Amino acid sequence: DTEVTQTPKHLVMGMTNKKSLKCEQHMGHRAMYWYKQKAKKPPELMFVYSYEKLSINESVPSRFSPECPNSSLLNLHLHALQPEDSALYLCASSRLPTNTGELFFGEGSRLTVL
Amino acid sequence: AQSVSQHNHHVILSEAASLELGCNYSYGGTVNLFWYVQYPGQHLQLLLKYFSGDPLVKGIKGFEAEFIKSKFSFNLRKPSVQWSDTAEYFCAVSPYGNNRLAFGKGNQVVVIP
């Protein structure tokens, strides 16, 4: 069982909807990540939070808005998405500081945009 | 930034055959190396990892990988595959002291019973 919990597991939304993806970990990790994975493709990094501050934004469109309310929680707010944003969204966490770079992944939230 | 190359994206083999998946990376410094597996419809799982020490590392389910620094490679092997090894395999690299993980394009492995 993964120790990174993501909700919801599946989400269907229209292009005008506002929704959020949630991620939670209780491993004491101080880095949390959002990745996007399209079918048959590798995960692509979207955002990294280090010590609850946004440290990396990989030029992600503003219709995706991350939030890290505390060291255990990570949200991804979605607004005015496009059908091409349909994908599996993966949350991950890791220790900080780190020499190993090992990430622990959640099971993902599968998003469909109609 | 580091980059990762995986070749032979689609691999089809019979049960009991041996499997070897190649992974090459490009980065000038020390790296941490990983292989992740994603079974159909499931999430990413860590298969094995290399940080330092013995370059031959053993992971779960009989997999092993060898780090060859001179070749910038971290190839994955399994002597005898099973049908349940059908999955997508991703090689990933992060610079030492850095949590920015980069993935290769993956190998789709299909094992025929």
Care to give the gist of this entry?
The complex is a heterodimer of chains A (114) and B (113). Chain A has 114 residues and is mostly beta strands. Chain A has strands spanning 4-7, 10-13, 18-25, 31-37, 44-50, 53-57, 64-70, 73-79, 87-94, 104-105, 109-113.
Detail the topology: elements first, then pairings.
The complex is a heterodimer of chains A (114) and B (113).
Chain A: E1 4-7, E2 10-13, E3 18-25, E4 31-37, E5 44-50, E6 53-57, E7 64-70, E8 73-79, E9 87-94, E10 104-105, E11 109-113
Parallel strand pairs in A: 2-11
Antiparallel strand pairs in A: 1-3, 3-8, 4-5, 4-9, 5-6, 7-8, 9-10, 9-11
Chain B: E1 3-6, E2 10-14, E3 19-21, E4 23-26, E5 31-38, E6 45-50, E7 56-58, E8 64-68, E9 73-78, E10 87-95, E11 102-103, E12 107-112
Q: Order of helices and strands of chain B, N to C?
A: EEEEEEEEEEEE
- Please provide the ordered H/E string of secondary-structure elements of chain A: EEEEEEEEEEE
Strand tally of chain B: 12
Radius of gyration of chain A: 13 Å
Biggest sheet of chain A, in brief? Answer: 7 strands, mixed
Proportion of residues in extended strands of chain A: over 45%
Number of helices of chain B: 0
The total beta strand count of chain A reads 11
Give the uncertain stretches of chain A in residue-range form.
none
Taken from the alpha-carbon principal axes, the silhouette of chain B is globular
Helix-strand makeup class of chain A = mainly beta
Number of helices of chain A: 0
Q: Please state the average pLDDT score of chain B.
A: 92
**Helix content, binned percent of chain A:** under 10%
Low-confidence stretches of chain B: none
Strand content of chain B: over 45%
